[in-house]
Design a protein that fits this description.
This protein is mainly alpha-helical. It has two helices and no strands.
């Protein structure tokens, strides 16, 4: 999932440099959502509510 976050941030940066604000905003929003999901999963694992086998 971290790989997808990095890919979306790179897409957002390139799209921003090329003057495509809609694509850059969409990619950045997708990356932000994935970061939130990763943080929630990380907190659940740290609190012991979710076990990773």
């Amino acid at each position: 999932m971290i790989k997808w976050i990095l890919i979306l941030f790179i897409i957002a940066a390139v799209a921003s440099l090329l003057g495509m604000p809609r694509l850059a905003g969409t990619a950045a929003a997708g990356a932000r959502i994935l970061i939130g999901v990763v943080l929630v999963i990380f907190l659940l694992v740290m609190l012991g509510l979710l076990s990773v086998a």
